[in-house]
């Protein structure tokens, strides 16, 4: 058993601590709300000599990820943190980091995107990164933000994975709120994440190498195909590393947290911090004998298709909650993923897609209750399937599937 | 780093590519650019003073040198730009049409 | 510094077989600059997207005989600063030997340096990384087909600064990037050309000798874009210098030094412009005033540099 420390901390503090314990060779970062306190905390570790990290205080997020790409290509363990507009500014670099198979670990404090400008939590930023080739982890709590960050290093650096990992937490709700947290001792974390010294880094390779080469002909497609396979095949590694950490620290790890789903007929699928709000109401409904369940993907990329299908196996109605919209598309991004997973398994159930909490808009108990009420109506056929609505703005009934009329 | 043979590059299976599209350094010597030439610099060793002016300006690393002396021109890679001929102050390089050049 | 014979003993850093055009100034810049690197220092080279990058890295044919990284267009400076940071961090962590000596070098064209990469470059210079940034300045976006950049000279034709009935090529003066980087207070900044190997190699040696950031702005003609013969690359550089169009100067620890043009070498600006097709419209009688404006700009810039030399002569003397 490890020596653990129990204390109160914010999600950002916990991420900074996990990064300190992993002691990356390079951190290149730029301040942006609500991530800033991660790099502020880290700057203190640097100033106190608590880490070996070369701390590169770049002039933009684009340069932050550019420097991370250079450092990771060189053979260093690399970490950074960002949010919102900063993640958006990194966009082209996200593809490059993944395409070059660079195991960079980045925390993202999920936040709305302009316009209008808004600093609060939603998933608009991270959803823009969902197809870049990064592994995406969503934390529900500050504790999970810590655990996800610890496991991010060995996942990213696994010789078969070699992909960047984004460890995300909801802006302010998780990044700034104080929670009761546990931290494992430094030796335990260091032993768990291990050393990283790749043989194919620009400054670690015994022979000179070129990175970031130009692809002609069909070699581009071959390379992207291998990238698809790499992220697809990373799920078992994520599960293995997550379970190994769970065994060490005694906190559970599942790629999908399926709460009371074995017999659940009314199922809500939700990412991140809102899962707690939904389970709070679901517990009350369970106490009333209602067969409700809550499905929370802790790993969003690669999308855990089988686990989602399994969690929804007895669903008679499904609510998918998106904290981001896919403008001009039919549904929010999580809904598209869930529906695709169900369709691929030949499973279908009446569903409704809720866009909620944009720009930190509160998810109240009333709103969650409304979702469960709608689920009952979806299940008994009194509410048609396939709708999408802005939760709290539109009645589900008044927001039938606009694409199908 | 292990890479499959470059001359069957088009047939490499996706799995054969080094991860991250990494490449061994200096492999472009295997790529022949001599076919680009329409003009050919021809070296007159007797007139040459080994001043190395042609060597320092050659954009294609195609002036061959050893022990501080010129040894020839790398026609596998020389593109025939003529910078060496232009810069030579000793008339040691002649510029002739490629189709008039003797085939070695 | 070493003479050419001695330099010819150094291992070649740029392999042949790259796909740059015949007579390209960019590869001349790379070869001559890398000749200035001490033999006991291992380099890592980074490159901004552009002609040099694309033509030297067409997979599986890498023209770099040294470790090389390309990331994107606007971030060569940030990328190589990351490589440098990796070296420092890994050395501190004991992952690489403490006595290993390395140098980090970035090449970017004028588009990738004056324009889209300026922020990244400014940041890297300000942070003080142990790196040399080289701008191979050919005065336009040559890789995409001769579009104007902020390095394109006034009056030059470019495919986005066309010559027509109401406009006669680029209307704005070239940005003085070298002074902008000098204003960062970095230890070494210099301007040279690929037609002045002695000047360029010695400036590269100084840049590599600096502990911290150094910047070289190197006139690197593009025969295709300038509409000159492929054999004229070095010659046109000499004309650029002898007409005072492209002054050779350096700023060493704040002290400005300008290489004078000898009276016997001094030539009118037209001698630099006339051989280049990109300036041919300027020789129409109705465009004579543009050449006059350009001459005034050249004189004003020279006077400005003389002022910098005079104003900095009492600054802390440069390190040797």
Description:
The complex is a heterotrimer of chains A (405), B (104) and C (320). With 405 residues, chain A is α/β, with parallel strands linked by helices. Chain A is built from 14 helices and 16 strands. In chain A, the strands form three sheets. A seven-stranded mixed β-sheet of chain A has the order 3-2-4-5-7-6-13, sandwiched between helices. In chain A, 57% of the residues are buried. By secondary structure, chain B is mostly beta strands. Chain B is 10% helix and 20% strand. Chain B is built from two helices and five strands. In chain B, a hairpin with a 2-residue loop joins β3 (63-66) and β4. The longest helix of chain B is centred in the middle third of the chain and has 5 residues, at 53-57. Chain B starts with 22 loop residues before the first strand and ends in a 7-residue tail after the last strand. The mean pLDDT of chain C is 97. Chain C has helices at residues 4-7, 25-34, 51-56, 76-92, 110-115, 118-127, 177-182, 197-209, 223-226, 233-242, 269-273, 288-312, and strands spanning 42-47, 68-70, 102-109, 131-137, 188-193, 214-219, 249-252, 255-258. In chain C, α2 (25-34) packs across α8 and α4 (76-92) packs parallel to α6. Chain C has 320 residues and is α/β, with parallel strands linked by helices. The longest helix of chain C has 25 residues, at 288-312. Chain C has twelve helices and eight strands. Chain C has one domain: Rossmann fold, CATH 3.40.50. In chain C, β5 (188-193), α8 and β6 (214-219) form a beta-alpha-beta unit. In chain C, strands 2-1-3-4-6-5-7-8 form an eight-stranded mixed β-sheet, sandwiched between helices. The chains are: A alpha/beta (405), B mainly beta (104), C alpha/beta (320). Chains in contact: A-B, A-C, B-C. At the A-C interface, β3, α3, α5 and β9 of A face β1, β2, α4 and α6 of C.
């Amino acid at each position: 058993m490890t020596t653990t420390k129990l204390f109160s901390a914010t999600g950002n503090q916990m991420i900074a601590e996990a990064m300190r314990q992993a002691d990356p060779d390079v951190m290149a970062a730029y301040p942006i709300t609500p991530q800033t306190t991660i790099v502020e905390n880290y700057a203190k570790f640097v100033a106190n000599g608590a880490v070996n990290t070369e701390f590169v205080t770049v002039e933009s997020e684009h340069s932050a990820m550019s420097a991370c790409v250079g450092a990771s290509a060189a053979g260093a363990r690399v970490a950074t943190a960002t949010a919102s507009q900063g993640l958006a500014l990194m966009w082209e670099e996200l593809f490059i980091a993944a395409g070059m198979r660079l195991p960079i670990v980045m925390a993202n404090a999920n936040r709305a995107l302009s316009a209008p400008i808004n600093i609060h939590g939603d998933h608009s930023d991270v959803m823009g990164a969902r197809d870049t080739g990064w592994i995406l982890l969503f934390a529900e709590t500050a504790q999970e933000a810590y655990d996800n960050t610890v496991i991010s290093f060995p996942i990213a650096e696994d010789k078969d994975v070699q992909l960047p990992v984004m460890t995300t937490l909801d802006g302010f709700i998780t990044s700034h709120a104080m929670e009761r947290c546990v931290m494992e001792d430094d030796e335990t974390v260091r032993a768990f994440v291990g050393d990283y010294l790749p043989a194919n880094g620009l400054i670690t390779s015994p022979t000179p190498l070129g990175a970031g080469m130009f692809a002609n002909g069909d070699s581009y497609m071959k390379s992207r195909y291998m990238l698809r396979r790499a992220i697809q095949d990373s799920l078992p590694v994520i599960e293995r590393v997550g379970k190994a950490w769970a065994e060490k620290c005694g906190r559970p790890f599942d790629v999908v947290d399926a709460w009371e789903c074995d017999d659940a007929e009314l199922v809500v699928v939700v990412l991140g911090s809102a899962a707690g709000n939904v389970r709070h109401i679901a517990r009350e409904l369970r106490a009333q004998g209602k067969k409700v369940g809550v499905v929370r993907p802790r790993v969003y990329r690669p999308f855990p298709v089988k686990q989602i299908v399994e969690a929804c196996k007895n669903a008679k109605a499904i609510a998918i909650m998106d904290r981001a919209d896919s403008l001009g598309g039919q549904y929010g991004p999580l809904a598209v993923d869930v529906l695709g997973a169900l369709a691929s398994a030949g499973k279908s159930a009446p569903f409704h897609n809720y866009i909620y909490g944009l720009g930190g808009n509160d998810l109240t108990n009333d709103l969650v209750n409304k979702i469960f009420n709608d689920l009952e109506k979806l299940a008994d056929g009194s509410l048609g399937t396939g709708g999408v609505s802005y939760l709290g703005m539109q009645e589900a009934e008044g927001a039938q599937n606009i694409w199908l009329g | 780093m292990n890479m499959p043979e470059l001359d069957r590059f088009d047939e490499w299976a996706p799995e054969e590519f080094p991860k991250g599209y990494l490449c061994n350094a200096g492999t472009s010597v295997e790529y022949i650019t001599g076919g680009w030439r329409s003009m050919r610099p021809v070296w007159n060793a007797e007139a040459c003073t080994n001043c190395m002016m042609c060597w320092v300006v050659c954009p294609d690393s195609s002036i061959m040198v050893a022990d501080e002396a010129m040894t020839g021109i790398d026609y596998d890679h020389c593109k025939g730009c003529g910078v060496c001929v232009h810069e030579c102050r000793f008339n040691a390089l002649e510029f002739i049409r490629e189709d008039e050049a003797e085939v070695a | 510094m070493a003479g050419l014979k001695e330099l010819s003993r150094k291992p070649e850093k740029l392999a042949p077989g790259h796909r740059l055009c015949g007579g390209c100034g960019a590869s001349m810049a790379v070869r001559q600059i890398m000749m200035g690197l001490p033999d006991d220092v291992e380099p890592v080279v980074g490159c901004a997207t552009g002609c040099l990058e694309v033509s030297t890295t067409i997979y599986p044919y890498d023209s770099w005989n040294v470790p090389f990284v390309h990331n994107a267009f606007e971030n060569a400076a940030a990328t190589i600063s990351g490589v440098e940071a990796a070296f420092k961090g890994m050395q501190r962590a004991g992952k690489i030997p403490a006595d290993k000596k390395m140098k980090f070098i970035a090449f970017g064209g004028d588009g990738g340096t004056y324009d889209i990469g300026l922020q990244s470059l400014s940041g890297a210079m300000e942070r003080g990384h142990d790196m040399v940034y080289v701008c191979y300045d050919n005065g336009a976006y040559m890789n995409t087909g001769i579009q104007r950049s902020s390095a394109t000279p006034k009056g030059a034709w470019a495919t986005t600064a066309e010559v027509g009935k109401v406009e006669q090529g680029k209307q704005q003066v070239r940005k003085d990037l070298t002074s902008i980087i000098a204003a960062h207070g970095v230890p070494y900044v210099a301007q040279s050309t690929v037609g002045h190997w002695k000047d360029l190699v010695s400036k590269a040696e100084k840049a590599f000798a600096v502990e911290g950031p150094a910047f070289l702005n190197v006139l690197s003609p593009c025969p295709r874009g300038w509409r000159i013969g492929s054999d004229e690359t070095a010659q046109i550089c000499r004309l650029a210098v002898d007409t005072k169009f492209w002054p050779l100067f350096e700023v060493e620890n704040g002290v400005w030094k300008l290489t004078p043009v000898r009276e016997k070498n001094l030539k009118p600006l037209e001698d630099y412009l006339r051989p280049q097709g990109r300036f041919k419209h300027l020789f129409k009688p109705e465009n004579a005033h543009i050449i006059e404006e350009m001459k005034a700009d050249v004189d004003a810039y020279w006077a400005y540099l003389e002022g910098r030399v005079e104003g900095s002569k009492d600054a802390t003397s440069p390190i040797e």
